[in-house]
Design a protein that fits this description.
The protein has 130 residues and is an alpha/beta fold. It has one domain. A five-stranded mixed sheet has the order 1-2-4-3-5, with helices on both faces. Helix 2 crosses helix 3. The longest helix has 14 residues.
């Protein structure tokens, strides 16, 4: 693990929230059912999300704002965009920051190894670090 990633992991650990800080019923339910059990295993979590929400609604991208913009054509209110390995280095971190400041998605969940972006307008706007 490089120095940047190690430093970001420590910062992430200090900012991390638990289920008691989640006020959205949808997010709390998703956290308890899927995220909490698979937080350290992103592949299993993505597989579980594909089973629950449908493969066509789960879109995976690299941490690139350009990729994020290209995927916007494929999104719908049921879509979940997954940003893989956002803390590899300073460049991917800056790209993630651009993505997180975009107003197109409603809710984001930062799990360090992946970031989940939800487009459902019924959800309240929120950014979770779990």
């Amino acid at each position: 693990m490089n120095v940047f990633k190690c430093n970001q992991r420590i910062k992430h650990a200090f900012k991390r929230q638990n289920e008691y800080s989640i006020h959205s019923p949808f997010m709390f339910d998703l956290y308890v059912r899927a995220i909490k059990k698979n937080r350290n295993s992103p592949k299993q979590l993505v597989s579980l999300l594909k089973q629950e929400f449908g493969k066509e609604n789960i879109l995976e991208i690299n941490p690139s704002y350009q990729d994020f913009l290209l995927e916007q054509e494929k999104t719908n209110p049921s879509s979940i965009l997954i940003v893989k390995n956002p803390y590899q280095n300073i460049l991917t971190y800056k790209e993630l920051d651009k993505i997180l400041t975009d107003q197109r998605f409603i809710l984001s969940v930062d799990l360090f190894d992946i970031v989940l972006l939800f487009y459902n307008p019924k959800l309240s706007p929120q950014h979770y670090i779990l």
